Amino acid sequence: LRREGVRVTQLMLKMWAFEDALKTAFANFLQALVSMSHDTSEFAKVRALKTLSELLVAKPEQEQALLTTLVNKLGDAAPRVAVQASRHLADLLDTHPQMRRVVFRTLKDVVLMTRPTTHNKGRQHRQQQSPACSPAQYRALVFLSQMKLSRGEQDLAGEMFKLYLLVFERLFGSTAADGMADSSSSRPRETKGSPRVVVVGEADSRLLKAVLTGMNRAFPFVESEAFSGALASKIDILFKVSHVAPTPSLRISLLSLLFRITNAFKVDSHRFYRLLYEQLLNRDIYRSSNAMTLFTLLRECLQPDHGVPINTSVAILKRLLQVGMHERSEMAYQALRTASTTLKALPQLLVEKVLQQPDAALRDTVDDREGDGDVDTQHTGHKHLRTTSGGDYDPLKRDPEYSGASRCFMWEPTIFSAMADGRLRQGAAHVTDPAAMESLPADPATNLNSWLDQ
């Protein structure tokens, strides 16, 4: 016998027969393991997963079948089995880091899988990309958010970032909104009369948290070239989600991510500061578990080297102090500390103008109005504000840049200086005195004696 010009010996035929029998036996063994992983006994499923993982790490015959079976068990009804599948995948990547891309693609198929849904009349069946996630999709996203990345995997980080944005589009995009016929509480729903407002269920809230964790982990590895084009055009969905995120901690995480994006790639920074200004009116963010992250973000994003307009910086500080004076003393102190740190970095002449005495500020305003009798009345929400043509401070302006905050006396620290809490009086003194302005300590109680003297 000859094959492609090579003589086939009796020994070669025996070797081929043995290899075929071995592969057939291994395929049967693998099929038995897959069947065992679907057994009703939780113990049997855990043992099957352990054997599959050991084969995948040491003997990667039929690697894709082994990996697919292991990934699919992330959606197992038994929590213990799903946790074991996640742990085995993590051990696989620790042993073979070069398999991250293969594992990511398999997990991506799970995240983007479609499920059959029934028409509302029960007569038609169709495949639809459901915005609500299954347990397998949620656990796959949680695993991706914990996946380690290296500097040489910029392409993988970009693909992961695109996947996270796609999940956002499914939850809040127009295509997902069109398919929100199901009124299940675990799915986003459009409210009547406002098609762009989405009500988010508890399941999607957990999904958003996992996606945001993954985006923050992958973002440092994303190259600017990969962010351009189609990827940059999808950032609009992040701004939309920031308005409807169900919990304050998610909104703070979104603000932090948007600042990193706008600061790194110069993407619509004006829109970010307008969103930040709007969110400061929501008092629930000051009571969130990560409220300190908000103050850290404010101190960083209001620095002059980010090119923030002066009027925007002062308007944000005034709103922060106005809301902060009604919060707990810890939050009020952090608001004063943020104002002190930010004003210290602003030009001295502007600070002196903003912090001028109230009687002088009132006298200047009266003089201006005597020379200009053209007064307009604007309806802003639930009350009327009188503004001169020269432009007075309007605290209800949607855009902080046009609020006129830098032309108004910053009266907020004087309210803090009259409070009983010594920390707040000390913080107000640092804000109102430009000559002695300095950054306040993060925790004044570290020096107990000086704090008690207050």
From TrEMBL:
It holds the Pfam family CBF. One of its GO terms (cellular component) is nucleus. Residues 365-398 are annotated as: Disordered. Residues 254-417 form the CCAAT-binding factor domain. Transmembrane segments: none annotated. It comes from the Eukaryota. Belongs to the CBF/MAK21 family. This is CCAAT-binding factor domain-containing protein. It comes from Vitrella brassicaformis. The lineage of its organism: Eukaryota, Sar, Alveolata, Colpodellida, Vitrellaceae.
